[in-house]
Amino acid sequence: MGDKPVIGRVACAAAVVAIAMSVAAAPAAAQSIGDRFKSLFGGSSEEKTEKAPAETTGDEDVTCPSVTVRAGASTYKVAAPGKEAVGNDLKYQVTISKTARECTIQGGQITARIGIQGRVIAGPSGAPPSVQVPIRVAVVAAGVGEKVIATKAYQTTVTMTEDVSVPYVLVAEDLVYPAPVGAEADKYIFYVGFDPQALKPEAKPKAKKK
Q1: pLDDT-based confidence at residue 207 (cuts at 50, 70, 90)
Q2: H, E, C per residue of 55-113
Q3: pLDDT of 101
Q4: How many Å apart are CA 7 and CA 113, to the nearest integer?
Q5: Best exposed site among 73, 91, 139, 183 by fewest CB in 10 Å?
Q6: CB 62 within 8 A of CB 188
Q7: Which runs of E-coded beta strand occur in the chain?
Q8: What is the dihedral of CA 12, 49, 190, 32, to 10 degrees?
Q9: Looking at residues 30-57, what average pLDDT do you find?
């Protein structure tokens, strides 16, 4: 791929099967599930579980990797204080039910927008009025010695209602990474998943001693 500005777009619904990494958290705006997925990806907000493969488009055959939920990070459970998130001590759990992605390329840099849809399910211990959902998105070069190309954490706030299960949607708007060259693009994959560490405030740098 050259450095001349070329824009290629690919949009497609994708599904589920986990992530965990590290970097500073950034907020992601919430909107209705139907509006968010239809406006960004032109698709239905109905839950889907089929996995869409990586696709190419444009003069440069820009590849938009498929999305996978990284194993071990597909569910986020929160317990009552001092308890384990099981049985009657479970306050709520958050799941991922659908993903979508869109990629553009310009000046040798790919900008990815990853849509994530799921539900917050109240537990026996009772969910709070609002829930912070922490999600991490990464683009990874798969293979021996898996390499993280870019990673970023996002959050969205879900207002709970009288319903036991409340839907949410988050769109990561600004994951940027260098466009891979040749067959290397076939190794790329987007991983998404819950990252509770993203909710913790960053440690303040220690003041230098005078």
Answers
A1: low
A2: EEECCCCEEECCEEECCCCCEEEEECCCCCCCHHHEEEEEEEEEEEEEEEEECCEEEEE
A3: 93
A4: 14
A5: 183
A6: no
A7: 10-14, 25-27, 55-57, 62-64, 67-69, 75-79, 90-106, 109-122, 130-141, 147-159, 165-178, 188-194
A8: 70
A9: 48
Q: How confident is the model at residue 38 (pLDDT cuts 50, 70, 90)?
A: low
Confidence of residue 209 (pLDDT cuts 50, 70, 90): low
Which tokens in the block code for residue 53? 């493969």
Report which of 85, 81, 94 is spatially closest to residue 120, judged by C-alpha positions.
Answer: 94
pLDDT of res. 162: 86
Distance CA 180, CA 109 (A): 9
Q: Which pLDDT belongs to residue 183?
A: 87
- 39: DSSP letter: H
Q: Are 114 and 86 in contact (CB under 8 A)?
A: no
144, two tokens: 């021996």
- Classify burial at 169, counting beta carbons within 10 Å of its beta carbon; exposed 0-12, middle 13-18, buried 19 or more: buried
Question: What is the tens place of the pLDDT at every residue in 99-139?
Answer: 999 999 999 999 999 999 999 999 999 999 999 999 999 99
Beta strands 62-64 and 75-79, pairing class: unpaired
What is the reported pLDDT for 33?
Answer: 45
Sign of CA dihedral 133, 176, 184, 59: positive
